[in-house]
C-alpha cells in the first residue's frame, strides 16, 4: 500500500507509563500511540517508530516519532488536522503538539542531539548552598567523548562511548542550583540517572571530584556511584534535520518550591515537586501547540 511519512512531536508524563517502547501487558507510550492510530483506521505493520527510548517514570516535553500514513489519508489531511486527530484518541497524559511531512526513509531515531534536564533537589539530602563554580567543575568532567561504562547499564550491542556537548548547572529564579542540563547526540540506558547520582553525591560532599574523573578515565575498573530516581528526569528537546523546530534549552524556572528540611515533610514536598514538574510540562505543551497553529 502506498504511504507517506509524517513526523510528530509528542510529550508525556512518565509516571503513568512503563517506558516508551511497547512491552507486553503494561501501559507504554508507543502502545497508546498504536491504539490511537488503530482507532483512526490508519495502522499498518511497522508504521510507527519512536525516536528516544525513555525508562519508566521519565517524563518528556519533546520526543519524536514517525508514522507511515496510507496515501489516501495523507492526501487529504494537513499537519494541524493530524495533530488534532491523534489527540482526540490519545489519553490526557500523552499529547502530540506538532506534525510535519518528511521524506520517505527518514528515521526518527537519528536525531542530531538530545537535551535532558534532571532536578537534583528531588533526591533526598540535596544541599541548599551548592556553590556554582564547584558544581560546574563536576559537570565539566562529563563534557567531551568518554567511555561511560561506569555510568550506564551496559548493552552488549551498543558501544559505551558517547559524546557530551554540554553539561551545565540548572538554576531556579533565585539563582539556587536545583539540577543540571545535559546535551548529547545519544545516551545509554540509565546514563543520565547515573550521572545525576554522582553529581548529587558530589554536591553533598560524599565524594570528591577525582572519584567522578576516575570513573570516566578508567572504565575497566568498576565504580558504582549510584542510580538516581527516574522522576527527576525530563527529556526536554530534540534536534532532527527533518523536523523544523527550535532546539530549546530550558529557561530558569520560576515558581518552583524549595525542599524543606526533615524527612517526613520532605516526602510531602516530593509529591508537590512531581506536580510542579507536570505543570511545567503542561504549560510547555499548551504554548507549543498554540505556537504551531
Which homologous superfamily in CATH is the superfamily of the largest domain? Pseudouridine synthase I, catalytic domain, C-terminal subdomain
Give the distance, in angstroms, between the N- and C-terminal Cα atoms: 31 Å
Number of domains: 2
Mean pLDDT over the full residue set: 92
Helical fraction equals 25-40%
Kindly describe this structure.
This protein has 293 residues and is of the alpha+beta class. The protein folds into two domains: 108 residues, Alpha-Beta Plaits (2-Layer Sandwich); 126 residues, Alpha-Beta Plaits. The protein is 29% helix and 24% strand. It has seven helices and nine strands. Strands 1, 2, 3, 4, 5, 6, 7, 8 and 9 form a nine-stranded mixed sheet that branches. Strand 7 and strand 8 form a beta hairpin. The chain is globular and about 60 Å long.
Amino acid at each position: 500500500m502506498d504511504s507517506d511519512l509524517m513526523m510528530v512531536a509528542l510529550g508525556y508524563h512518565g509516571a503513568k507509563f512503563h517506558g516508551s517502547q511497547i512491552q507486553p501487558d503494561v501501559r507504554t507510550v508507543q502502545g497508546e500511540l498504536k491504539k490511537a492510530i488503530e482507532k483512526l483506521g490508519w495502522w499498518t505493520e511497522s508504521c510507527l517508530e519512536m525516536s528516544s527510548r525513555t525508562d519508566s517514570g521519565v517524563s518528556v516535553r519533546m520526543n519524536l516519532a514517525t508514522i507511515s500514513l496510507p496515501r489516501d489519508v495523507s492526501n487529504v489531511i494537513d499537519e494541524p488536522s493530524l495533530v488534532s486527530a491523534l489527540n482526540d484518541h490519545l489519553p490526557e497524559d500523552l499529547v502530540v503538539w506538532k506534525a510535519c511531512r518528511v521524506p520517505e526513509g527518514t528515521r526518527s531515531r537519528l536525531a542530531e542531539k538530545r537535551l535532558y534536564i534532571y532536578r537534583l533537589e528531588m533526591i533526598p539530602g540535596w544541599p541548599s548552598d551548592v556553590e556554582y563554580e564547584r558544581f560546574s567543575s563536576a559537570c565539566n568532567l562529563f563534557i567531551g567523548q568518554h567511555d561511560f561504562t561506569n555510568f550506564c547499564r551496559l548493552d552488549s550491542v551498543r558501544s559505551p562511548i558517547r559524546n557530551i556537548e554540554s553539561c551545565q548547572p540548572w538554576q531556579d529564579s533565585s539563582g539556587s542550583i536545583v539540577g543540571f542540563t545535559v546535551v548529547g547526540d545519544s545516551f545509554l540506558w540509565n546514563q543520565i540517572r547515573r550521572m545525576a547520582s554522582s553529581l548529587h553525591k558530589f554536591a553533598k560532599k560524599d565524594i570528591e571530584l577525582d572519584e567522578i574523573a576516575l570513573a570516566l578515565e578508567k572504565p575497566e575498573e568498576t565504580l558504582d556511584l549510584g542510580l538516581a530516581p527516574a522522576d527527576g528526569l525530563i527529556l526536554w528537546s530534540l534536534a532532527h534535520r527533518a523536523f523544523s523546530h527550535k532546539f530549546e534549552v530550558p529557561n530558569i524556572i520560576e515558581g518552583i518550591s524549595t525542599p524543606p528540611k526533615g524527612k517526613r515533610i520532605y516526602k510531602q514536598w516530593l509529591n508537590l515537586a512531581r506536580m510542579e514538574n507536570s505543570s511545567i510540562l503542561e504549560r510547555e505543551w499548551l504554548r507549543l501547540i498554540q505556537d504551531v497553529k
